Amino acid sequence: MVAKISTGKTIGVVIRYNEQKVKNGQAKLVQMGGFAVKNLTVRDKIQSFEKVQKLNIRTKTNTVHISLNFSPKDKVDGFMLQKIAADYLKGIGFENQPYLLYQHFDAAHPHVHIVTTNISSSGKRIETHNLGKVLSEQTRKEIEGRYHLVKAEEQRKQKVNLPQPLEKATYGKRETKASISNIVQEVIRSYQFASLPELNAVLGQFNVCAYRGEKESAMFKNKGLVYSILDTAGNRVGVPVKASSFYCRPTLARLERLFLRNKEARKQHRETLRGLIHGTLQSCSSLEEFTSRLRTKGIKPLLRINEEGRLYGVTYIDNVSRCVFNGPALGRELSSNALSVRFSKDHVLPDPSEREQEVRISGQETEPDIRIPGLEIFFNSYQPEDPTPYGLRQKEKKRSKRRIQ
Predict the structure, then answer these.
(1) How many CA atoms lie within 13 A of 312 on its CB side?
(2) Total domains in the fold of the chain
(3) What DSSP assignment string belongs to 241-299?
(4) How far apart are the first and last CA of the chain?
(5) CA distance 186 to 66
(6) DSSP letter at 132?
(7) Which residue in 93, 152, 163, 218 has the most C-beta neighbors within 10 A?
(8) pLDDT tens across the length of the chain (405 residues)
(9) Is the four-CA dihedral 367, 230, 29, 186 of positive or negative sign?
(10) Of 244, 265, 286, which residue is a domain's last?
(11) Number of H helices, E strands in the chain
């Protein structure tokens, strides 16, 4: 297990960052420690912390943001993550502090984020200087032994480095091929999908699309495949990159073999996912409520809606178990036709800007729009942290400067 502690001066920034992840289906709030009321808005959560922080106005650095990162080999469920988080906070002296525990799904390894404050209910400041080196390291090692987790020191020996959270590709921000390669390689390695549209459903969460070309084209007939970056409207932009040019070679021929393996491998998650979606469906009165509640469980439904506003397709991405299913594959009652009947008066989402539309590719099977709504907050000085502790990070080689003769 790898623990990383960050401190800051604005609790609202950190809470909004995690809540936006929840809204986008990339995280879920699994526990609210020290809160009398559980159904709070984002504003309510921020004000609850600010009320405590006002007890000590002299302390400006009053926000603590902790990430606990586990090896992909660790089998940790939601209940175990709650116990580990509670044990960790107790070990570093924060057992009486209010906290929010978020489970994130934006990387291939299990990890949680803890948001809390270092101002106690009596107004005293909890010392955070050298907290990571002293109490955190000792607590981390105890937890590894207690829950039989992969030790952080073994990560380098086994060459099982914790992967970085994936960032959405943005055209022009960095080199196109490198941006696409990182996303495609991680998605293919960690997600289970059984068709090209299902692969595109996952890739689209990171603004990337796999494209075969139009059916009449030579590329389509020769089973060629290229990858492109998508803009905010879901359109392919920039020069596409051939699949064969990537190091991992995600060509159509290789993907088709992977489709067959994934079709069998994902079966173990089918009934669990089906049960979660079906249970959520029974208690929802509108399609908007249905999609919103699924996102809080780490499930992202991609709805395909035509120009007349009719729902004609749905794909479910489970960002917890990392598997993808088309609606009918989970049962008739979870197909687009069944959803249209159940929400006959509400099958068009009230807010068009939040609606999942389709990516239309001429002459090719229509793919779902796999965009994630833009991150509508300013991080100021806060940046998503590197989950690898300083002592375990790979050192970059210094490049020698060449003199111009």
Answers:
(1) 11
(2) 3
(3) EEGGGSTT---HHHHHHHHHHHHHHTHHHHHHHHHHHHHHHHT-SSHHHHHHHHHHTTE
(4) 50
(5) 24
(6) I
(7) 152
(8) 888 898 889 999 999 999 988 888 888 999 999 998 888 999 999 999 999 999 999 999 999 999 998 887 888 888 899 999 999 999 999 999 999 999 988 776 788 999 999 999 999 999 988 888 889 999 999 999 999 998 877 654 444 434 445 678 778 777 788 889 888 988 998 899 999 999 999 999 899 999 999 999 999 999 999 999 998 888 898 889 999 988 788 999 999 999 999 999 999 999 999 999 999 999 898 999 999 889 888 889 999 888 888 889 999 999 888 899 999 999 999 999 999 998 876 444 444 343 343 333 333 333 333 323 322 222 233 334 443 443 444 444 445 444 444
(9) positive
(10) 265
(11) 12, 13
Q: How many CA atoms lie within 13 A of 107 on its CB side?
A: 23
> Cα–Cα distance between 102 and 51 in angstroms, integer?
21
Find the radius of gyration of the CA atoms of the chain. 23
Q: Could you tell me the CATH number of the domain that includes residue 119?
A: 3.30.930.30
In a shared domain, residues 223 and 291: no
Token look-up 């809390």 returns 116
Instruction: With H, G, I as helix, E, B as strand and everything else as coil, classify residue 337.
Output: helix
Q: Which amino acid is at 206?
A: F
CA 335 to centroid of chain Cα atoms: 24
Could you tell me if 40 and 150 lie in one domain? yes
Are 303 and 314 within 8 A, CB to CB? yes
Query: How many CB atoms lie under 10 A from the CB of residue 368?
Result: 25
